[in-house]
Amino acid sequence: MRLLLHICCGPCALYPLRTLKSEGVEVTGFFYNHNIHPYQEYQRRLEGVRQMASATGTEVVYRDEYALEEFLSAVAKEPAGRCHYCYFSRLEATAAMAAELGFEAFSSTLLYSRYQNHDHIVAAARRAAEKHGVRFHHQDFRPGWQEGIRLSKEMGLYRQQYCGCIYSEKERYHPAARGL
Predict the structure, then answer these.
(1) Does pLDDT of 178 surpass 60?
(2) pLDDT for residue 81 is more than 90
(3) Deepest of 62, 69, 162, 179, by most Cβ within 10 A of its Cβ?
(4) At residue 179, does pLDDT exceed 70?
(5) Residue pair 118/140 in contact by the 8 Å Cβ criterion
């Protein structure tokens, strides 16, 4: 199977890539994360994916777009629902790219994180798959959480401290948002 794998960051890609490749899947990565804030963080994650791709010999398609205004206009009225937008916008772009490039299926490294809402990711991916006529490959990569962390540390990859958007940055660093 030829699969386009949405990659949110270098560390989160390691275990899914290893697993999929060991199962005989031909994997190409896809970096599209228009919501990451601030721009310096976006650049760190983009460079981390480039470093990971080089180290693992993974081909990656880059949609290098920093679209803070687009993200904010989509979620500002209801910040609590931002993850739904975030999941769907990135998975919809992945499904569209998979269809355009002739991949059999697509998936995402978002399915690796213990901190993401797995069910919402799967629902968004299925909607995107239906919209673009390409199969969504659902695989739960969370059992490899510690292995991915170990690998990313061994490789010296940049490891971010929050999900990525301006709201998650606030939740991570602002004392009031953390209940302090």
Answers:
(1) no
(2) no
(3) 162
(4) no
(5) yes
**pLDDT band per the 50, 70, 90 thresholds, residue 85:** very high
Tell which residue, 133, 141, 105, 128, has the closest CA to residue 2. Answer: 105
Range of the domain at 99: 2-173
Bridge partners for 136 per DSSP:
106
Number of independent structural domains in the chain: 1
pLDDT at residue 177 in the model: 63
Give every CB contact of residue 22 below 8 A, 6+ residues apart in sequence: none
Long-range CB contacts (within 8 A, 24+) of 113-119: 113/8, 113/12, 113/142, 113/145, 114/142, 114/145, 115/163, 116/83, 116/87, 116/163, 117/83, 117/87, 118/142
Q: What is the mean pLDDT of residues 131-158?
A: 95
Q: CB pairs under 8 A, 24+ apart, for 72-79?
A: 72/166, 75/165, 75/167, 79/167
The answer, yes or no, to whether residue 180 has pLDDT greater than 60, is no
Identify the three-state secondary structure at position 29. strand
Token pair belonging to 92: 């919809």
CATH number, domain with residue 18: 3.40.50.620
CA distance 34 to 42: 8
Distance CA 147, CA 136 (A): 24
